What we know:
heterotrimer, B: 325 residues, alpha/beta, Rossmann fold, eight-stranded mixed β-sheet, four-stranded antiparallel β-sheet, 12 helices, 12 strands, 33% helix, C: 345 residues, globular
Amino acid sequence: MSYVDTAAATELSPRARRRRLLRKRFLRRPLAVLGLLVALAFVTMAIFAPALAPYDPTELDVTAILEGPTREHLLGTDELGRDILSRIVYGARASILAGVLATLLAMAIAVPIGVTAGYFRGWLDPIVARVTDVVLAFPFLILAVGLAAILGPSLLNATIALGVGAAPGLIRVARGEALSLREEDYVRAAIANGAGDTSIIGRHVLPNMTNTLIVQATVTIPAAIIGEAVLSFLGLGVQPPTPSWGVMLSAAQPYVNDAPRLALVPGLAIFFCSLSFNLLGDGLRDVLDPRTTR
Amino acid sequence: MPLLQVDDLSVRFDTDDGPVHAVDRLSFTLDESEVLGVVGESGCGKSVSLMALTQLLPDTAKIGGSARIGDLDLLSASSSRVRKIRGRTIAYVFQEPMTSLNPSLRIGRQIEEVLQRHLDLSRRAARSRAVELLELVRIPAPQRRVGEYPHQLSGGMRQRVMIAIALACDPKILVADEPTTALDVTIQAGILDLMRDIRARLGTAIVLITHNLGVVADIADRVLVMYAGRKVEEAPVHDLFAAPQHPYTIGLLGAVPRPGSASTAGRLQEIPGRVPSLRELPQACVFADRCPRADDLTRSEQPLLREVRPGHLVACFHPGGAWSS
Amino acid sequence: MVFVTEPVLEVVDLVKHFHVGSQFTGGGGVVHAVDGVSFAIAPGEMLGLVGESGSGKTTVGNCIMRLLEPTAGTIRLNGRDVTHISRRAMRPLRRELHMVFQDPYSSLNPRLTCGQIVAEPLRVQKLARDKRLDERVRELFDDVGLRDELRHRYPHELSGGQRQRVGLARALSVSPSLLIADEPVSALDVSVQASILNLLRDLQSNLKFSCLFITHDLATVEYLCDRVAVMYLGEIVELAATEELFARPQHPYSQALLSAAVVADPEVQRTRRRIVLEGDIPSPLAPPSGCRFRTRCPLERESAPRSTDEEPPLLDVGGGHLVACHLVHAGREAPVLADAPAELA
């Protein structure tokens, strides 16, 4: 255990000191830092798309179809003469939006259910556990596709489908955390104080779950990003002419031999975007683990 | 000629936050059939030093000094050589019998594995030796137990099985690291009795690592007291308890309530302060900032081990007496 | 035992059984954690509850704290029956009792500062607010010997001993009439244990709260407690004043337990007359019939066959010394199997 030198440590508040320690730890992990930077780049791309994209992504130019990379069109044009680079930049919106919102939705569903089941146990818990187990037997994408098909094609519906599809896995995590945290002595001490359950959950259980939840979020986002691409690819998500990497992939199918670029570019975008969140999540998990020594 | 001779053993862990000096120039000897007690609290380096002998430490550990068994220096020997020694000449028993045994293998199998690997016995011979060993450690109905899984045994039984595995190849040295700490008091008594028996019957030398002075009083011949990686006192057991020399030892002895006189005794002895960080090797007495006798000398120079009574070594400039004198 | 004033705690025939295994598949068993325990604690008294694994001592503590609901029996706190009262009804009574836990690492919420942790009971019970709350927390830190600035630190920045002090401060913040200490020093280094034990002794003599001190360590109990109860497999086998127990232990298990406790003195430790029990502690899932200790008792032959069929009642053998053994009753000398600790000094 480290020996704390009180004299040197009084300039910063404990919160600030911890933040600094976590920052240092994070910076020691090049892959995580890379993940963070690339993820940030994509998020920036999504937010500032109008400023970054050279062209309107839906603007057709039938005189310039399937052109290779030129100075006017850095990544070339697609089968309808639209600038690929602009479509990629705008496409980030759909991916990031779907990725983040779907994850938030999944959390909003999963945490209350999971924590209630895990903390209170009783009759609710076995039901939640068994139902979650059954639903988890379905692969996430199959679930999402099924839900999206029911809801009807649109980016919003796709996001909802992804969120609901990701929820069961998160329920399991939240329930597991609540189950183990309720056994901690400090929870028993809180009961001994006379605290009510809501207060205990809010003050003792949830705050000690945040690390796990953050990590789960950063792992769910890339799955949702890929999910959005899949749904759009299948026509269940974003509708043309709105750009989305999945839609671009789908449209690129007939041209795979002649202009592989049309498939390659969105494919790589999906790959790097989700990978960056994955690396970021891995790094965060490591850094936030209390047992990590560096 | 001692069985094991350790000279200036040092262990330094190179972590990202800097070096940690877990053990600083530790020297000791172990004779045949001797029980050596190594006493200290958490972080004093007692476990690390014994694990260093057979290369059981992770790669981040930098080990210095020498540890001779016969002609062989364990610390500079090749890992294949050391692997032959480990389990065969020097065997270990650890604290947690729950996790030291493989839960998916039967007890008999786990003992046989050791026998087959080190002694190259046939399956049949190994099986009968395994039963013998279970008898040796006084497990009732050994023929039946041999086919059982660890979870079917109690904590005390599992510890006996660990001891049986350790004794499988008739090692010269048994290193027991807090072997009874995780066990109930009445079970502990049985294990200590067993270790005494083993020493008497097999002549095995035992290094008993513990923080419990009572355990040491029970079976040790000689005691070594460690603090913050250094040896601060060493003496035959009766001498150590009758006339402790180092203030830390005196403090420890005073900190433990004694059954039979606890209610009439005065306050328990408190040792103020905390164990120092092992990140530095101070050129001073390592106990100085907690010691009532500290003065300029002890804060500027490291006391070396001196023999103050026959066979009784202490590293202190002001040894002897009671806590504050 | 006759009390002049009302006892702070009265436990009568407390029983707690746990069902394990699946009730659906019929593989269930019953853990007889506590099987009929009775005792009382007077105001200002410290009672030690001693036992090994499976003795049920921790479960007794948890039942009294109402962290568990007893299966049967009665628990009276300051005269009030709390055995089955609701969580809500229990809430105001939480000012009267509190607990110190064994593990200094899991007993404090890592997300709260130590000051917040100590203030919590006062906040929840609405006993103090704002400035008064702050003052009270500072007082408590001072009482337990912690530097004032540690109020702003997080638990992981403190040592094990310091954390236990925080736990003590938290428990004493509401000025309870009963403190339950469940192995409060077992997880600490020896030198640190001494300071916490001294602290507890001092606090108890100053603040005069009653205390149920649960532990496996007999020497500690002798140092702190006025009376001691020895538990085995869910039952009390002996209960006596501390000095009396350490001088004249009567139950064979008490004698074995005392005998097994190593003394830090080689002269004494190696020459004392001892008994070493054979065999393992039976599982609370299937406690032996009749006298639960009979499977390990050196005197089993003498007490058989009665010990197989009948449970020995807890009887007063003189002066409030209670023993549950077929071979021990008033007017008959208890068998002496080993040197009692008081004779060793």
